[in-house]
Every structure is written in C-alpha cells, then in structure tokens.
Model the fold of this input.
Amino acid sequence: MTKQGELYWVTAHEIGHNWFPMIVGSDERRYAFMDEGFNTFIDVYAADEFNKGEYAPKRDGEYAPGKGNPADEIIPYLKDTNAPTMMARADQFPEKYRHPIEYFKSAFGLVLLREVILGPDRFDYAFKKYIQKWAYKHPSPEDFFRTMNNESGEDLSWFWREWFYNNWQLDLAVRFVSYTGGDAKNGVDITIANLQKMAMPCTLELILKDGTKQDLQLPVETWMQGDAHTVHFNTTEPVQSVTIDPLHKLPDSNRSNNTWN
Done:
C-alpha cells in the first residue's frame, strides 16, 4: 500500500469514529464490534465513493488483509475453533483475533446483510433508522439486532445467531442433477444441500449447452425444513453446468462441491 493510501485509510477510519461510538454511543470496551466493526463497514463504502474510488476496494489490515475476496479470507477464522465470537468482551480477545473478528468479521457480516440478504434499499433504511434512534444513547447488541429486524421488516434472528453469537461455517453443495423423466426436454431437477450449520440465501446458476444462462435466487427459507432441497428448472436443452454462488459472495468453506459439470 502506498503512503498516500495508508494516510487515507487511517484518516477515513478515525473520522468514521465520530459516528461509532461518539454519536451512537455503544460500549466499545464490552462489544468492540459495535465500534470498530461498524466503522470498518462504513469505510468499505467510503472507499468506493472517495475521489471516484481512488483507494477502492478497501483491502487493508482491517478488512481482507490478503487483498483478496473477503468471502474467502474470512473462512480460516470461521474454521478456527479457538477464535472468539463477536459477543465476547473486548478484553477477552487474544491479540491475533482482534482485527480479524472485531473489525473484519463484523464489517463483512454487515456487507453480507446489505448485499446478499436484505439488499441495499432495505438495509440502508434500517441502518439509518438505527443510527437515528440510538444517537446519543447507549445501545447494546440486542438493541441493534431488534432495530434491524423491525425496520427491515424481516426476522433476522438466524443471521445474528450464526454470525455474531457463533462462528459457524457454511458449505453449500450441488448433490444431484438429473433430467426430469430422463429427457432434457422435460426440464432438469437439481438437488442442493447445506452441509454445515450456517444458512444463507444463495444464487443458483444454470448454463445450458447452447450457452444460455438462468439464475435463480433462493431465500434462506430454502433450508427451513431440511438440509437438502430439489429445484426444478423448465428447460428444453441439455445442461452444461450448475453452480451455487457463481460470484463467490458467500463465505463457502468448500467451493469444490459448488459446481456440477
């Protein structure tokens, strides 16, 4: 990183602390993620806007320090059985986990919530309501969770449980692909599975032999009644490939089973 880049990141981050925890007065000594994590989250989008993205995307010691895909870089910490959860007190964190969990995991969790789960419109409305409601007060994590649930109009308790209260893993897989009735003209049946405890909505991409592509957005409710689900696509052409999460937005711990060819 250039010296100019370092100066930008430090300055932007410290200015952000005017919001968290100075205006929204969360207890950073008890729940550091409500200070450093939320602030790192707004840094991600500030980088995209500042000077037409001169220092974007945000990749530094606070967020995706390996300069790669955040969804991939967070996986080692989800697999680490010694890693504390974000609900642990700040003074209980070993130094090696301070940035990865308090900053990176918290910020990336909010990116997932905005980009994958709620969408920017609903997330931005709810997050602004949280700031407005709790300005000059002292919210707890539960206050944040309840506000986001209420203002987004969605019960997100499953997400708070898996991302903030626990360090669960995600492993989505394409298990079986078969033509309905043995004939491609009747469509194709695709069975996908969730092999770990974390649940997430996902994109299922189907590419046909003629090169056409179909995408299906599957909600988190896909996993409500079981860890396997069969999806039917109406097609008349043979299938070339089926892929879960083709854009690698999710922290899938095993991408080798995401694609069927």
Observations:
- The chain has two domains: 3-164, 172-260.
- The mean pLDDT is 95.
- DSSP finds eight helices and seven strands in the chain.
- Residues 3-164 form a domain with the Neutral Protease; domain 2 fold (CATH 1.10.390.10).
